[in-house]
Every structure is written in C-alpha cells, then in structure tokens.
Amino acid sequence: MIDILNQSFLWWHWIILGFLLLIIEMNTGTFLLLGLGVSAILVGIIDNIFLTSFTQELSIWIILSLINIWIWFKWFKPTHISNSGQSNYRLDTLGVVTEDIKSNQRGKVRFDRPVLGNSSWHSTSNEEILKDTKVEIVSINGQLIEVKKHIIKD
Asked: What is this structure's pTM?
C-alpha cells in the first residue's frame, strides 16, 4: 500500500489537498483547518524540491500540523473572561418598585426580564422611590441593585 502511495501521490496532490482544506476552513471558520491546509501546501512545495517519499511527506505534514496547532493555541487563544457564574445582564432592563425605597435604604423591585437569574431583587437608591414607580438599573453591587427613576425620553 505504501509503495502505491509513494508512486501515485505526487507533490501537486498535497497542494490540492491544502487548498481544499483552506476552502473548507473558509466555510467553517474554526481556524483549525487553516494550519492543516498551510502544512499540506508546504509539504507539496518540499516534495517538489526534494523528491521525498510518501512516508516522509506524511511525517512532515503531521509535524507541521502539530506545530501550527500549537502556535494557534499558544499565541492566538482568546483571553478568558470570567463572569463568576453569573448570567449576563443589561443595565437597560426596567423594573417596577414593589416595596417603597427610602433614600439610601433597601426596597424591592421586580424587573421585566430576569437580572442575574432572578426577576425580584432588593434594591437601593439615592432618592426616595414610591411603590409602582418604573425604575432602571444604575449599577449592580453583589446582591444589591442600585436603581433610579426611569425618565421617559421623547
């Protein structure tokens, strides 16, 4: 089998394989096949210059592919941002006061959409806000949400 591959698998087969992998990569967007395709093209160029056997070509392709994958994960990996297990929230989420909020004291607010996994929260404000008043989030400090009166903008 190896003898057949040594005789029939030529340098331009590697280049075609490389371009096919690059085309597939353009459709997937994973960047994994990018390194494999570039490695195959390089093997085709090396085979054209040095006339290597198929086993040498395959070994070179595997080594170059592993180096490309290592480079990708070493230098191009995204920085990990931790949300500390909390779901994403949006500060433009509106809510309604269900317990009066005195100035710099706690009250309760029910939000239209869940904020950090819950729709009802203890809240505080710099101003007094009465029950059934529409509010918006100013900031989230741990388990306490600071709110302010929602002003309708025309």
From this structure: 0.51
